[in-house]
Amino acid sequence: MIGDLLSPSLGGVDSVVYGVGTLGMLVGVVVVTWLLRDGDLDAEAGKFRYLMIIPAFAGLSYAGMTLGIGVISINGYEVEGVRYLDWLVTTPVLVGYAGHVVDVDRSVVLGAVGLDATMILTGFVATTTAGTLRWGAFTVSTLAFLLMLYVLFVQYPRRARATSPERKRLFLRLRNQVGVLWLLYPVIWLASPVGFGLVSTLGTAMLVTFMDVAAKVPYTWVVHEHRGIFRHERDAVAVDRDADDSGRDSPVATAD
Ligand code: RET
């Protein structure tokens, strides 16, 4: 069984799709590498190491899928086991990092992460079983998903400790990406051969690959765009002081 899971079998159009997915994730790796190497930024405060997990782990998992590693054959369907492992590792980081941006209370972040992991694990059960168990697991997964969205949209803003306008802006962009894009996953699942079979296996592979890249790479890019939030404390102070000094030398600015 383990031998079967690990035996590479390159070939087929889906390998091409997953190859494109691997390249897509590499773009995210480059973006986070820029953040890590930017000397003006405090990588510790920005927790960029954690951010790197998102595209790096997914890139490895897509490389595995390109080689046909981790495919499990269940009830006549080919299930990408590696994909669920990828989701189990990376989606909690996406959810947790958004909380980090506005310093949400740890217990609340852990609640969201726990619901997220429950959603993925029960989603895996739904994908790999049949009959009542499948639909029961699908229902539990969907409920965990909705509760997680509640925590993100209601609890996170209430329990945020860092609420500067810049941090709020970044938080809202990341949170809304999660809220909008992720809704499509259960829809794709229902349309796929494991659900009602409205979309072929290849079509599902293409849709999910597109979604995975869209959910991860722009996320890292948005953090890059807002990287000023994580500028070193000393630089921020120096910038403030410069602004004060220049204010003293120049005439008072007016609204017009
Ligand atoms: C499943 C099927 C069962 C019901 C639900 C699902 C939701 C999955 C989600 C996955 C998100 C994945 C992401 C990956 C990023 O690369 C498991 C499809 C609710 C929301 C964001």
UniProtKB/TrEMBL annotation:
Gene3D superfamilies: Rhodopsin 7-helix transmembrane proteins. One of its GO terms (cellular component) is membrane. GO terms for molecular function: monoatomic ion channel activity; photoreceptor activity. One of its GO terms (biological process) is phototransduction. The chain crosses the membrane at residues 16-36, 48-72, 84-102, 109-129, 135-157, 178-199. The keyword Transmembrane applies. It comes from the Archaea. Keywords: Chromophore, Membrane, Photoreceptor protein, Receptor, Retinal protein, Sensory transduction, Transmembrane, Transmembrane helix. PROSITE patterns: BACTERIAL_OPSIN_1 (PS00950), BACTERIAL_OPSIN_RET (PS00327). Its main location: membrane. InterPro entries: Arc/bac/fun_rhodopsins (IPR001425), Rhodopsin_retinal_BS (IPR018229). It is found in: Membrane. It is a multi-pass membrane protein. Belongs to the archaeal/bacterial/fungal opsin family. This is Bacteriorhodopsin. It comes from Halobaculum saliterrae.
